[in-house]
# Entry
Amino acid sequence: MKKTKITYWVLTGLFAFVMAGSAIPNIMVNPMSVQGFTEMGYPTYIIPFLGWAKLLGAIAILVPGFPRLKEWAYAGLIFDLLGATYSVANSGKAVSQWAPIFIFVALGFSSYIFYHKKLKATATASSETAPIQEVLS
# Structure
């Protein structure tokens, strides 16, 4: 249980760091974001919206509780990464420029998998202690 929790928090912390790190330049509408969106043919007015969505998603996966919100946050963050990968790949960029995004996708999926392992371990641990607590009460 302890190993699962530690692995979950390490993976989730890294994933949230990566997503928040990409969100902040989007929120600030930095020139590199504008250039990238322009090259892919996307409107630049969507950049701060995506930045805020990524930042809120990163916060949501870090805050304890709120399981439904976490599910939606994970989905949104993964959709963002897969959409970015697809968009950059189809804009004519070399594979070396977009393939590393899959590392972050794998990090997100790993965090999500360990989130569910942690939930299952917590449920198992609480169900094992419930009969003991009933006897003691």
Notes: The mean pLDDT is 91. The helical segments are 2-27, 31-40, 47-62, 67-90, 95-98, 101-136. Residues 89 and 101 are 11 Å apart (CA to CA).
